[in-house]
Each structure stands twice: as C-alpha cells, then as structure tokens.
Give the backbone structure.
Amino acid sequence: MRHLFSTRLRVVLILAVLLTAGLAILSNATGHTLPDMLAEGFLSPFRYGAQALTNSAEQFYSYMFNYETLAAENEALKAQIAEMESDARQADSYQRENQRLRNLLDLSTTREDFKLVDGYIIAKSSTDWSSTITINKGSNAGIKEDMCAVTANHEVVGLVTEVGPDYAVIKTILDSSLEVSATIASSGYSGMVKGGYTDGRKDLMRMDYLPSSAIIRNNDQVVTSGSTVYPRDLIMGYVVDAGFDDTGVAKFAMLVPAVDFGRLEQIFVLTSYTTTVVGGNSAAAGEAPVAPTVPAPTESNLPTGGVVVGVG
C-alpha cells in the first residue's frame, strides 16, 4: 500500500515538473509570464464578446447613416418628381391654351362680326333639372344677361342668365328649361332643342317637332337656326337616337352635346354680332338681345319627304 502511494506521488511530481517546464518554455517563447497567460485565458471570452458588441454597434451606426442618406435622397427624388409633374401639367395647360387660341383665331377669322369676351369657369352646378356654370367675368367686361356663350370651336355652351360685376352665370344647353331653335345640317329639318333632364338623360339633349317622315341618321350634326340671341350655324350636338313622340305624328332626336362639359375650362361670351333678319337686312345683335324671331317649327313649315329611318 505504501509502495502504491509512493508510486502515485512520483507520477504527480513528474507531471508537475513537466507542466512547469512546459509553461516555462512557452513563457520564454511568447514573452508572457504564467500569470499573464492565465489572465489572458480567463479574459479572452470577455474580449470576444466585447468585440462582437463593438462590431454590431458599428454595423448599426453604418445602417442608420445609410438609412438617413437614402431617406434624404428619396425626399430629393420625390421633390424632383413633383417638380417634373408640375412642369408637365403646366405644359399641358399651355398646350390647351395654345389650341384654344388657335381655335379662337379661326373663329374670329371666319366670323369677323363676332365680339367675344373670354372667361374661365370658376364653378359648376348640376341637379336633376338644371345645369349652370359660373365664369370669372361679368358686367365690368361688358357681359349682359341673354348673351350667348360658345367655345372656340363654334360650339354652343348656353345662355347668360345672371351677371355680377366680376362673374356671370350661364345656363347650359343641358338645362331642361333652355330651348334653342336648331336645324339638322345635312337635311335641313328644324326643331327645338332642350336639355334631356325630363327624360332622365341629363347628359343628352332632345330635339322635338321633327316631321314623322324625317330622315334622321346617326351622327347627324345639329346647328343653331339663327336668331338675335344665337347666331346661325353654331354647333349644338350630334344625333345618337331617334323615335316618335307620344302623339305618334312627330319625331324627336336625342343629341349628345358638341361641348365636352367635363373638360370645359374656358368659354367665350358673344357680346355682339351681325345677324340677317327678315327682308335680307343686317342688324347688330347681342347688345340688347330679344326673344328669337324664328317661330317654333310645325309640320306645315318643315321639309317633308323621304323614308322614315330609325337611328341604330
């Protein structure tokens, strides 16, 4: 037993000597003392953890810096896009204005007797029975009640019904209370046109008092017959449907307005023009308009003949 204990002790002592020698050799090779090496081994995990935290912090800072940079660039790009969109809208506005001026020049050239006051729409009103628009010109610009409003494309907009110093209210041709003497340009058949609200078609107009034998075709152009309120041959609309009225002895036609009221921005009020009255004499109209001199058409004074043609 004593021999076994003595053997184990010798083994432990030999291992201790070897370990001490190894550590001494390693210490001389690395230049670190044994306590330093023990401290290094103890602190290494903590140093690794601290380095990992430092790297994470640096990555987070880099991300935040890049995020702020990208956010600033994004805002700058948004501002550039908004500016480009504004420029595009302005260019479109200039293009529309240029086209209106070209059309107005054509209107002034073809009808030199027209005296026009331009105005921009500032309000619109549409109900089940009425349709009006308000423009930014009024009596200060020479506009009076019962003056005709048109577009630069020779299209009828409506009639001035109310005037203030700097505004005017125009009842459009879609209003069911406004009636205009008109003619189908291709055939010469005349009738009275008014808004189609009474028929539940507020986007259309109705032309009444057409003879039962009238030939009415799809897309036939309808123009004004001429009076002291509405000059002759202004465009009112185009035929899209036709049929017999309740009496069965006359026909009517449904018209789509020539004016695109949804996109209308600018109109022109006709303050004066020259009209031809009965007897071939010319007279100025528009300064103090009166009721139309064209009588309401009846079957006796309308052109007849031909085959009744429905509109498809």
